[in-house]
Write a structure and sequence with these properties.
homodimer; alpha/beta; Aldehyde Dehydrogenase, Chain A, domain 1; Aldehyde Dehydrogenase, Chain A, domain 2; 2 domains; four-stranded parallel beta sheet; 16 strands; about 20% strand; globular
Amino acid sequence: MQLRTKMDTPGADAGDYALGLGRNARAAAREVASAGTHVKNMALISIADIIEQRSQNLRAQNAKDLRAAEDKCLSGALLDRLQLTQDRIEGMAQGLRQIASLPDPVGEITQMRSQPTGIRVGRMRVPLGVVGIIYESRPNVTADAAGLCLKSGNAAILRGGSEAIHSNLAIAQCIEQGLKQSGLPASAVQVVNVADRGVVGSLLTMPEYIDVIIPRGGKDLIERISRESLIPVIKHLDGVCHVYIDGAADIDKAIAIAYNAKTQRYGTCNTMETLLVADAVAAEVLPRLCSLFIQAGVEVRGCKKTLALCPQAVLADEKDWVTEYLAPILSIRVVDDLVQAIEHIEQYGSHHTDAIVTENLTHAQRFLRNVDSSSVLVNVSTRFADGFEYGLGAEIGISTDKLHARGPVGLEGLTTQKYIVMGDGQIRT
Amino acid sequence: MQLRTKMDTPGADAGDYALGLGRNARAAAREVASAGTHVKNMALISIADIIEQRSQNLRAQNAKDLRAAEDKCLSGALLDRLQLTQDRIEGMAQGLRQIASLPDPVGEITQMRSQPTGIRVGRMRVPLGVVGIIYESRPNVTADAAGLCLKSGNAAILRGGSEAIHSNLAIAQCIEQGLKQSGLPASAVQVVNVADRGVVGSLLTMPEYIDVIIPRGGKDLIERISRESLIPVIKHLDGVCHVYIDGAADIDKAIAIAYNAKTQRYGTCNTMETLLVADAVAAEVLPRLCSLFIQAGVEVRGCKKTLALCPQAVLADEKDWVTEYLAPILSIRVVDDLVQAIEHIEQYGSHHTDAIVTENLTHAQRFLRNVDSSSVLVNVSTRFADGFEYGLGAEIGISTDKLHARGPVGLEGLTTQKYIVMGDGQIRT
């Protein structure tokens, strides 16, 4: 795999290069789709072994990226995400072995039922075909995404950020080697090795070669790709997540859940950004919770009723209700009841993850049914909305779309179901 | 519902009109989503009754469309599709009653499993929200689509062809009346009542108000909508369907299936367009089959080997293998074996519906696994690829997409699944 950084005629060249990727991927996809579980698992384990064996090389290549990033004065957070420590390298290898240990979703037959005509109709789970993943900075996504695509029988085209190109290509070489060792085509996983942005533009217009695009990164990246793509996109947009403390809540549970949902990690998409509290329990809940938040260094922005109960809070404005802070900031609103809580969530939320704390069964059921989010939780911290916690084994992202995959996307989200029909000579009359 | 046929400033007006439709639909969608099964069924049955009661009015409005179509010299086939006979009106009513009798997909909870942390994680089936359907000529689609969307808990925006506008609006009035009688919002089903094409353009750019677009009509319509839409589209494209007669086929079954797959109806998407025959049985199968096809008035276009066995056949060219004739024309190719048959289908087919005729279990399994089509059939006519035959009860189309819905799309395809999580105060550590 050769690194090209300069091209004479970027436009045309990028298009040709993308077309080559697409053709190779489509050809490889058929082989991967029909590969046995054992072969795919062997490849995953081989790749994991090679990544560990080459950890020194990976760190050396990563150091090049880090130096270039420092020269460009990238932020500390970005540098941290870019870095491949020994721990992270081992984490990649372990992740691949864990994917190998998951059940193979491909070939599963369900709902096989006889019809009045005597035919039997069911559904078979099959790979999507070719998956294109466009992501930023974290090089470990290269290994994770390759592993999930491979196990689910798909070919993958991976396009990481230009700031991680040396790291990504070093990981790509490990993948290529592991694929070859297990007899799978090397082009089952292709890592884009040119910096030209035109390549992404070309990939997005090749629905004949790519079946789905999964962007992973900031909102700008995802929105731009969704706009440009002629290929279906599985999107992972904002997490403006809510916890609603119901009038019938167990107060201790409510405080523990709300505190955890905000403070366990600030930068994740399933972190609570707005707390809603029923008027009936606000006086009991909010003073205790607010002092905990203030102690933890969380800035509290509240409605007028909140301010009366939390003296350190500042007044929230309309914009706060729609903001994903990803930071130690929390907006709080006192609501009349369950109905107003659901209305607030539907009006301002992002349909990602929302939780109710209540001991009332009817309230729990109404919340579950009427909140239109990818994950709806009862008496649990929003931080549980995650592929690992849900038992999917691994996730390639959390879909905020409604079609195809909604919520954490694991191996199943990278497959589809076709109808299969078994007969004995039936014809239609 | 008022019919406007002329607008002063079409562009801006169309945008405002579309926005109004979107807002109304989004508001209605929440009510329909939480409506009980009984209420939805009542509405469906009321609409069916009203359609029958107003059959005279429907036929009178339909006559206006037919006269306009005749004035425009539309083709006989188009006039036929446009016509609402008494039988077709009763068919619409019966279709709605049948949808009422189907199980309600909304609220179904599956895969509820405990996780090591003690939380229980499952999936709840919920409506998509707002479904936009854009279709041509057949006015009965208005009732079918409204019924399927309603039963699956969605609000619908329906945009029929301008040639059927009087018929569609008359049906829309029946729907509105039935919705009101059962206490559901009238805007749960909105029929676009202006001819301005700009309305469709505006609708396609409102992902905040419409969750999915389903175009029903010719390839041009579907491709144009897919290109313009910022909303996910469930597409129904070509059916270049194959029957492969394997070397291990039961010859009588093979002949019956191939004959039925071509001649039972010529104009449907699941009609066979190319017949593949294994070399080993070609001499036995093709002379008999060809004479049947010729007798039925089917033009046969074949490869050279076919020509040697079917003297009346003409030589097929490369274009024949990719053509959806929708007519009494059939292309035939003699292939070496199963492997070449699958290669042909993957190279030239449209991934819609493909069948094998064989008594060999291994061949059947390889065909099922390796043919990447929305329906893969064994020993059955391709004409069975249909929502009714599959036991879905009704279908809104046959998806040739891989994401979300693949193959016949019934009530389930108009829903999605969200994750639900039940806990007892769990927090993440």
